[in-house]
Amino acid sequence: MSADLRYSRFAQRREFLAESVAAATRRAIDAGEATGHDPLVLIYTPPARGNPYQQLLYRNCDEFGVAVVPTLDLETFDGLRWPHPIALHLHWTRPVTSEAESAAAAESAVDRAIEILTAAKARDVRLLWSVHNVLPHECRFPEADARLRQWLCDEVDVVHVLGRRTVEQVAEHYTLPVDDRLVHVPIPSYNGVYPDHVTRAEARFELDLRQSDRVGVLFGALRGYKGIDVLAEASDRLDAGHRFVVAGSPFDEETRVALEEMADRHPNLLIAARRIPVEEVQMYMRAADYAVLPYVGGLNSSAGLLAVAFGLPIVGPQLGTFTETVTPEIGELFPPGDADGLVDAVRRLLARDPAETAAAVARFAEANSPEAISRRFFDAVRSVLG
Q1: Residues 368-378 pLDDT 10s
Q2: Per-residue 3-state assignment (H helix, E strand, C coil) for 267-308
Q3: Which terminus has fewer CB within 10 Å in the chain: N or C?
Q4: 281 vs 26, 274, 284, CA distance in Å?
Q5: How many CA atoms within 13 Å lie on the side-chain side of 259?
Q6: What is the pLDDT of residue 240?
Q7: Which CATH superfamily includes the segment(s) 200-367?
Q8: Which residues contact 10 (CB under 8 A, 6 or more apart)?
Q9: pLDDT, tens only, 146-156
Q10: How far apart are CA 190 and CA 187, in angstroms?
């Protein structure tokens, strides 16, 4: 891409962002007048594709005098000059170094990101950062990424963690603050996000599953740290009539081919390695008796919160925030990477009283509803930013 074309695209994005912020400012002023809060426009980046987490987190923003606006990247935001109060909420940091082809290029990209954020602070932009993972998935330049994250820890106004043990879980790479800037707000349940009108019988018919099968589902982006190979191994050790269903977009073509070959070798493993349309999510969730999350890495995951929204208990690893999400009432934990441990956890879960477990899952989903978590998030943010 030529420099002139790149500049033109940035100019168009910046113009669109300015227009969006102008409209958001009017909404924030109206919301502030209705609620007694000072108006605030919160710009967030990068916007997630295929995961409604951000929409759920921001759902009740107007109750706090806040209007939200997405922007594609930090470069687009850098062109914004605005006379009214704004905040920038940074989510995943992977885009900063994702296009770097060398460690030196990654360091330069981090320098540029810090330059943009420092300039924003000088313009009185309030900065927030959500710690979604220890380092970006498929991280190629951990030193550069860790340096950016340490700068964020030291300089932003609000550091949002999704789990209570995040401070210790990331400590090998950077040091989170332990003062009032650190706020804990978990991932919300995905209640009401996806269509939900398919019956269990219809879902199983569509997926060629017997009504008598016991079925565990793993739904979401299919990447190496999800531990699908562990699930495949476990699928050979469970009783007859037990199936694992895996559905979601593969990380790349190589992953897709490997997963299809894996399914051929393990007859009790059904894999749909493709983008699942919104309307079809219910098919996989309603066909299942429980969610199975065999992750071998990672800090946070919304997969369990999607499961409880469909009334499913969870079998998950003793890892990251799973140890907080998968409480004894709604699921079973097992050592990550341990296929035998996974099988034992499944058997323990299926030996429970299903009515009691279903009631506990419903209570958990309601207690962590999008509305409850969104209000908790903005209450925490307002307590720091005013």
Answers
A1: 999 999 999 99
A2: CCEEEEECCCCHHHHHHHHHCCCEEECCCCCCCCCCHHHHHH
A3: N
A4: 36, 12, 6
A5: 25
A6: 84
A7: Glycogen Phosphorylase B; (3.40.50.2000)
A8: 75, 76, 79
A9: 999 999 999 99
A10: 9
Q: What pLDDT digit, counting tens, does each position of 169-225 carry? A: 999 999 999 999 999 999 999 999 999 999 999 999 999 999 999 999 999 999 999
DSSP-based three-state secondary structure for 194: coil
Q: Is the torsion defined by CA of 249, 254, 258, 263 positive or negative?
A: positive
Distance CA 147, CA 174 (A): 8
Q: Do 57 and 188 form a contact (C-beta atoms < 8 A)? A: yes
**Distance in angstroms (rounded) separating the CA atoms of residues 365 and 245:** 23
Cβ atoms of 324 and 304 within 8 Å: the answer is no
Q: Locate tokens 């540029």: which residue?
A: 112
Q: Does 70 sit behind a cis peptide bond, omega within 30 degrees of 0 on the bond before it?
A: no
Virtual torsion, Cα 373, 182, 314, 198, nearest 10 deg: 30
User: What pLDDT is attached to residue 106?
Assistant: 98
The sheet that has 158-161: what strands, in order across it?
A: 66-70, 40-45, 86-90, 126-131, 158-161, 182-184
Res 11: pLDDT: 79
| CATH architecture type of domain 3-187+370-385 | 3-Layer(aba) Sandwich (3.40)
User: Phi/psi of residue 180, each to 5°?
Assistant: -70, -10
* Common-topology check for domains 3-187+370-385 and 200-367: yes
Q: Are 154 and 116 in contact (CB under 8 A)?
A: no
CA distance 323 to 166: 12
CA distance linking residue 104 with residue 110, whole number of Å? 10
Domain boundaries, the chain: 3-187+370-385, 200-367
**Distance, CA of 128 to chain centre:** 16
Task: Please check the confidence at residue 324 and state whether its pLDDT lies above 70.
Answer: yes
d(CA 320, CA 336): 11
The two structure tokens encoding residue 346: 């499944």
Residue 332 near residue 348, CB atoms below 8 Å: yes
More confident residue, 240 or 248: 248
pLDDT category, 9, cuts 50, 70, 90? Answer: confident
